[in-house]
Structure formats: C-alpha cells, structure tokens
Amino acid sequence: MIEQLGNGLLLGVIIALGSVALSLLYGVTRIVNFAHGEIIALGAVMTLFFSSSPDSSLLFFDRYSPIGINFFGSIVISIILCGIFGASLEIFLFRPLRKNNFGNIAVLVVTIGLSIFLRHIYLLFASAKPSSFILELQRREDYFGIQLTPRNVQVLVLGFIVMILVGLFLTYTKTGKAMRAVRDSSDLASVSGINSDNIILVTWIFSSMLAGFTGIIQGVINNVRWNMGFLILLLIFAGTVLGGIGTSFGAMFGGFVIGVLVQLSVGLEFMDGHTEAKNALALGLMILILLIRPQGIFGTKDRIS
Amino acid sequence: MNNPIIEVNGLASGYVKGLNILQGVDLVLKDKEIVSIIGPNGAGKSTLLKAIVGLIPIFGGKIYFNGAELKEIKSYKLAQMGIGYVPQVQNVFPSLTIEENLEMGNWAAKERHKDSFNEIYDMFNILFDKKKERAGNLSGGQRQLLALGRALISKPNVILLDEPSAGLSPKAIDEVFEYINLINQNGVSILLVEQNAKRALKFCDRGYVLDQGRNAYTGSGEDLLNDDKVVELYLGKL
Lengths: 305, 238
Hints:
- The complex is a heterodimer.
- In chain A, 68% of the residues lie in helices and 2% in strands.
- Chain A has one domain.
- Chain A is mainly α.
- Chain B has one domain (33-44, 81-235): Rossmann fold (3-Layer(aba) Sandwich), CATH 3.40.50.
- The chains are: A mainly alpha, B alpha/beta.
- Chain A binds chain B through residues 174, 177-178, 180-181, 183-185, 187-196, 300, 302, and chain B through 53-55, 74-76, 78-80, 84-85, 87, 90-96, 100, 103-105, 107-108, 136, 150-151, 154.
C-alpha cells in the first residue's frame, strides 16, 4: 500500500485543488457546476496546444499544428484563457439565467449540457488519444520512503503553495472577504453596498483559473486527454461534500483525503490489481461519513443543501 | 429639517410579475423622523422595505430619495447613496467575524476609516469585546446589534428596520429600541416595520397601517393608538 502513497499524494493535490475551485463557485453562486471538469481539461488542452512542438505528430482539429512556445509561457496563457472563459460563461450564460430567476435544478441541467458540449469539442479539437506535455522523462526517487519524480515533488509543493495562497486570499483580502459575504447572503451583501454581480464575476474568473491550473498539474503528472476533467469530477464532488459544502478549507481537506484514499486502495490485497475499482473504497467511505455527519467534516449545519 | 427623505407613490411590487403584494402604497419619511409600519401578517410590510431597497422588482409607482426619482434601483447603489437596511432574517454574515461584518458594511468607503469602526464599537461595546468572533456564534440580540452596526458604519441618512424585535427576549427588545432611539437622535431617519404594533406606535412620530398591500390608516403614533377602529382591527383590546 505504501508504494501507492506517492501517487496518492499527487491525486490528493489534484482533487483538493479541483474541490476548492468547485466549492468556491458553488458557495458564491449556488451553481452545482458539472462543467467544472471541462474547465479543468481546458487548462491542460490549451497548454498542450500552446507548448507542443509544431513538428510533433499532434494535430488539432486534425489539421492545425501546435504553436510550440515555451512551456511556462503556455501555462500562464492557458490559465488566463481559463479565467476569460469563466468570465464569458458568467456574462453570456449564467448571469442571464440568474436574472430570469432560473431554478437551481434547471441551471444544473444546463451545466450538464455544457459539460457534454465542451467535452466533445475537445474530442474534435485534440483527438481521443492521450497526449503528454513536452517534458523530459524523469526517474522516481526515494523521498522519505515515498517514490516520486523530482517533478512530482515540485508539483506537490506548488499545489500546496497555491492552496495556501487561496486560503490567504479568501481570509485577508477585501475581495476574498466579499466573496465569503456573498456566499453567506448575496442580498445582505447588496444592501451593504457590495455589487454582488461583480463579486460573482470575480469568483467565476478565480475558480476557472484555479480549475485550469488543476488540469495542467493533472497533465504534468499523468497525461492530457479530452475527458480528463470528467474522469475526476466525481472525486471532486466527493471531496467537496466530504469536507463540507461551501467551506474552502473543508474542500481542500476532503479533496486531499479522497485523492489519497483512492490511490492507496489500489494497493489493498482484496483489490487484486483491479485498479478500475479504485474509486469504490473512497466513495463508500464518503457515504459513511455523511451518514454520521451530514454537513461534512468541516461544514456547519446551516450549510447542508 | 423635515424635508421628505423617502417618498413612495402608488408603489406596486411583489416577488412574481402579475402577483402584486403591494397594490399602490403611498408613504413619506421625513428627515430625522421615526416612522412605523404596522399591519397584520401578509399585509406587505416587509415587502415594502424590500421594494424600497431594490431587493424585489417594482411593477408600478415611484420612489423618490431626497427629492430625486430612483429610476434604476440597484441595492448596492442605494446603500452607497445612504439608505441602510437591516433585514429581519439573515441580517449578519454568519461565517465572517464581527469586524469583517462591519468591514462589509463599510464596503463603499474608499479607505478603511478606523474612526468609523471605533464609533460603532463605542456605541455597541459588546461588539468590540467579540470583534474576532464569528457572527454566527452571537445570540439573537447581539446579532441585531451587529446588524445595526453594519448598517450604521457607512453613515446612512436613513435606516430601514424590518422587525428588529422579532425573536428577542424582552430585555434585548428594550435594548434594541433604546439604540434605535439613540441612532435617530444622531440624525438618522428611521423607517420601522414592527409586529409589536403598540410599542412601535408609542415609539414613532408617525405610523402607517398596511392591510392587504394597501394603506389602511395613517397618522401620528398617538392618533393611531387612540383611534378606536385601528385598536379594534389591528391592535386588539386589552
């Protein structure tokens, strides 16, 4: 089991980041965003498009060669594009729905449709084959008994730094506090002089950039594929619910626990190498914990929804 | 002195178009006045406050603030113009600390004026003692004081209060009313919706009785308290 700990930590960071982004958006907008996985994938697919060599066999829309710019430059551009994409979704889709008093369930169905639509656009854009970023291959080394490549370690550290920064942003900045205020009550925020629409827009941008970053990390650790976000979406939902809906710290914790448990369970004897069943244990545990504590580990009772 | 600060003419409003809860309400709140709105459950008292602060759509009629018609009513702009509002429920941000709640009330201010915070803390000492605690942990009475503080910190000209005594102990109710009086003495006009009609009428300069979304009676607090019809229909006989 211990040999899976390295992979577990990596999946834990991916799910934790994805869960924070999802939880933040849900908290402020009350949107259960099934297209969240596709924003994650957008970060990775865009980075692949910008960073892969034009000489590689990769073709986008079966026709266009990749751009071939510097990898870190590609990451920055892709994260910014994810932010712009999130802003567009809010301005052109979700804000009009909100102004027309669309119900939460109807909006949820819209996000499912959006998810399917975007995922298949990526399928056309980047083909069904998994692809990798242009990064040199590295051997796994031993870090305190945990097997990881040096790049894996960098990704883990970066992931934790980003989570700490998100926490500091929400706790100490004026915008972060306003996001939490709108999450508590958007009406009360409005009558306090806060333009809730602006805060919701900023939340979409922030959550989408964080989701894009999650996808890039996932691409670095594993590979890039059209449905990569969809494949981890259930685990992200599980992490968010386990930690407590609407609490960012809870989402980080829940996501991390789910990710680690999923990967650790691969090493269990009774799994007998059936890695395709690896989600079972973690999701079973999530159901058990919610039976005992419906508000999640860090959630408060008024946030059960 | 005594210029109309808020004037409502023939206001029709509700949560859904075609289902008006307010069906042509008139109301005037003059500078430095305390005005109470009373009436049975479902009369549209809270709805009237929500319509004035732009939380629900307006389907007819006009609202004037300091003599100018409010054309596009956006809650956050009204707050910035000097209309404070304390809702009956969800009147604080429970996951924010008391200090952060006040900061949100002071959102429109360009800079964080320490003095404005100190003024609120001087008025409500209990808030200073608990300023790092989450508002969700406060008692009902303390929440109401924080809600008043949050609305006051932006130095509004008028505060709309929706049933500030609801769910409070008799001692906490006395305290809240004392504070409302003090706020008014500092020059802030008060528009008060109250379930405790007798207390509200004794307390206010003028009162409005709403019934089924329409004005039923209007007059000074004292006149309404002595009006047999009002007593019979809305206040009950002792």
